[in-house]
Design goal:
The complex is a heterodimer of chains A (439) and B (231). The longest helix of chain A is centred in the C-terminal third of the chain and has 38 residues, at 398-435. Chain A has helices at 9-35, 46-77, 84-106, 120-141, 149-166, 175-210, 214-235, 249-258, 261-276, 285-308, 312-318, 322-351, 360-393, 398-435. In chain A, 77% of the residues lie in helices and 0% in strands. With 439 residues, chain A is mainly α. Among the domains of chain A are: 1-123; 320-439, no CATH class. Chain B folds into two domains: 36-133, Orthogonal Bundle (Cytochrome Bc1 Complex, Chain D, domain 2); 150-228, Cytochrome c-like domain (Cytochrome Bc1 Complex, Chain D, domain 2, Orthogonal Bundle), CATH 1.10.760. Chain B has nine helices and four strands. In chain B, the strands form two sheets. Chain B has a two-stranded antiparallel ribbon with strand order 1-2. A two-stranded antiparallel sheet of chain B has the order 3-4. Chain B is elongated. Classes of the chains: A mainly alpha (439), B mainly alpha (231). Chains A and B meet through helix 2, helix 6, helix 7, helix 8 and helix 12 of A and helix 1, helix 2, strand 1, strand 2 and strand 4 of B.
Chain lengths: 439, 231
């Protein structure tokens, strides 16, 4: 840590971890509802629990990204943050907003659109919070003497995040147009804005961990993010096959999304390459493990799992089944959850001035969460294949097929318990590090 | 490749692809009126969509294949279930079987139910490029006669209103607790069926099937004609 104001990131990291834990607990409840209908149906019916599960994910990732940005930007720009006060204010607003949303869901205060359940008032509140954040980051960056690609990419990602969010705010009368623009938020976040932010954060971590020249790292940053956007923007079309939009999207979506794994594959190669040609001795092996693991899991979960059911001929049968759940879990964990954990394990010890720290808990969390998520993803995938075959292929009744899938969902539940244990180890580790007296 | 070339690749690639995407979006908009029948998108349908949002239906059900996967897809529910069944079900979705996944009763008003059904009817007609796909095996799954007389139609309504499908299935649709009724007409005669419906225990003392004393003689006869036609 070089700048005092970077310390604001600590509280972002702690809340990010706590919400991660809560999200996983809700996930376990959802799995339990599939297996033994229907625990807690009166208090937390499936739809409410799912809204909380998915929104907590978004919020804890945002806390992680924002904490990461508040750590990275002063160091990249060579200056203190423009305003620590604003960063603190923005933290409390986001925390209160998140809590109000969760409590609101419990009482049925919802916009009723999957993943975008936040009521319109809270959606505008998020816009305000985002503006404060962008303003603070931007005002810090313009003090810089030399603009870097990492700064530009980070700022671009944050602005794109805020702009796409606006498309999720209005009420659409037409369900087809509703989903058309719904994907401008959901898809263009995860395969656009999030990728920009993630790539910038990862480039920064690799730069600091490995000591490879900035020129090389930033060149690859441009190539990879360029490919992500070239394939990803028109790749939105793979969500426009069956929602009432024209048939030509089967071609545009199919061809462009078939190329989507390419940039992710590049990321794996160049991450490994940077690590191999490192100029520094890596002291924080834990952060390195999360970084390399992130690249690999990102490729499996988002790249491979994404591409196999993105072809129209396959998607016709798998669309709207547990195959999507399998892909969703592995992609989000690999691409973004692991990315947040990478920056937390990189930045937190530095913020506390710890040259050395006990990495044992972090490694336990690494191996438990990655292994159990892999198995969980496969179990969801098996359930999804059964569903695609019997329900779509043979036309057997929905609930009857759910019965065939039950053994695999039981598998999801038990790997979910393992995953929760890994998550709790992480949460405790973060709290432990954050509350440690600086040496 | 130099860093500068990489940067140009990034900028121009993004700009060109965004332009193509916006062009496709504009073209898509021009096809929406025909593909989604916007002339039939009445205020009632829009209010039905608001009901759909109000109860957060989409976080259990999928529609157009999007949403949560806990409950069946709603895209074609109007044509597969019909008005009567939907009304009955939305009024009282409780299942008699405690082991079965159940939909909580949302306590919808009649007005809300009508609007919601109007919305589902409109959704049913969206041109989805033939999704959901027809099953590969189009086996003869039910022996229902092609022509439905008034009596048979009435019987079908009795079947739907009393939600027999929670336990029984016809042509793969329905529950697994009771026997499959797809070809019941070939196995049992009308008097046997009538006797069973009125008093299941008189035929099988250990059966789990409840009696239906609330059915009138007329309704029983209609139901029996419907079932007898499944050969």
């Amino acid at each position: 840590m070089t700048y005092e104001s970077q310390k604001v990131a600590i509280k972002y990291f702690v809340i990010s971890a706590v919400f991660f834990g809560l999200q996983v607990i809700l996930g376990l409840l959802l799995a339990a509802k599939y297996v033994w209908p229907d625990p807690l149906i009166g208090l937390l019916p499936f739809n409410t629990a799912r809204a909380i599960h998915t929104n907590l994910l978004v919020v804890w990732l945002l806390f992680g990204f924002m904490g990461g940005a508040y750590y990275i930007v002063p160091e990249e720009s060579g200056t203190e943050l423009y305003s620590t006060k604003l960063a603190n204010l923005q933290f409390w607003l986001l925390l209160i907003g998140g809590l109000v949303a969760v409590i609101g869901f419990l009482f049925g205060w919802t916009a009723g659109r999957p993943l975008l359940e936040l009521p319109v008032e809270l959606k505008w509140a998020i816009v305000v919070i985002a503006l404060i954040f962008i303003f603070n980051i931007f005002m810090t960056m313009i003090r810089t003497k030399k603009w870097t690609a990492i700064q530009g990419m980070l700022l671009g990602g944050i602005v794109m995040l805020a702009v796409m969010w606006l498309f999720g705010i209005p009420f659409f009368k037409n369900l087809t147009l509703d989903y058309y623009y719904w994907w401008w938020v959901v898809h263009l976040w995860v395969e656009g804005a999030f990728e920009l932010i993630a790539a910038a954060i990862m480039a920064f971590v690799l730069l600091k961990l490995t000591g490879v020249e900035r020129q090389v790292i930033e060149k690859w940053l441009y190539i990879e993010v360029g490919l992500v956007l070239i394939t990803g923007i028109i790749g939105t079309g793979h969500h426009y096959y069956w929602i009432g939009t024209p048939e030509y999207w089967l071609w545009w979506g199919g061809i462009f999304s078939a190329m989507e794994p390419l940039p992710i594959l590049f990321m794996v190669f160049d991450t490994l390459n940077h690590v191999r040609h490192r100029k520094l001795e890596v002291k924080n092996r834990l952060a390195l493990y999360w970084a390399v693991g992130c690249a690999i899991f990102h490729f499996i979960g988002a790249g491979v799992w994404g591409v196999i059911h993105t072809l129209p001929q396959v998607n016709r049968w798998t669309h709207g089944t547990q195959v999507t759940t399998s892909h969703g879990h592995m992609a989000f964990f690999g691409a973004y959850a692991m990315l947040v954990l990478t920056i937390v394990y990189f930045a937190l010890p530095r913020l506390k001035g710890l040259e050395q720290f006990n990495q044992k808990k972090g490694f336990w969390a690494f191996w438990i969460t990655t292994t159990s998520m892999m198995v969980m993803g496969l179990a969801f995938g098996a359930a999804g294949l059964i569903q695609s075959y019997f329900q779509r292929g043979l036309g057997i009744d929905f609930l009857t097929v759910q019965g065939f899938m039950r053994p695999w969902i039981i598998g999801v539940f038990y790997t979910g318990i393992a995953f929760l244990i890994g998550t709790l180890v992480y949460v405790l580790d973060v709290i432990g590090l954050a509350t440690k007296e600086s040496s | 490749m130099e860093k500068k070339a990489a940067r140009n690749f990034f900028i121009w690639g993004t700009v060109i692809c965004s332009a193509v995407f916006i062009w496709l979006t504009i073209d898509t908009h021009s096809t929406i009126p025909k593909r989604t029948n916007t002339d039939k998108l009445t205020d009632e349908v829009v209010m039905g969509k608001r009901v759909w949002h109000k109860y957060n239906c989409n976080d259990c059900h999928t529609i157009l294949g999007i949403g949560a996967y806990y409950a069946p897809d709603m895209t074609k529910v109007y044509s597969s279930r019909g008005d009567t069944w939907l009304k009955q079900f939305l009024k009282n979705p409780d299942s008699p079987d405690p082991h079965r996944r159940k939909m909580p009763n949302q306590k919808l008003t009649d007005d809300e139910i009508n609007k919601l059904i109007a919305f589902l009817k409109w959704v049913d007609a969206i041109d989805t490029n033939q999704w959901p796909p027809k099953p590969i095996t189009v086996a003869k799954i039910t022996g229902a006669p092609l022509e439905e007389t008034a009596q048979i139609l009435k019987g079908k309504n009795v079947y739907n209103q009393n939600r027999c499908d929670l336990c029984h299935r016809i042509g793969g649709q329905g529950g697994v607790i009771g026997p499959d009724l797809s070809h019941i007409g070939a196995k049992r005669d009308t008097s046997w069926l009538a006797q069973l419906i009125k008093n299941p225990k008189s035929i099988n003392p250990v059966t789990q099937m409840p009696a239906y004393p609330q059915l009138s003689e007329d309704e029983v006869q209609a139901l029996v004609s419907f079932l007898a036609g499944l050969k």
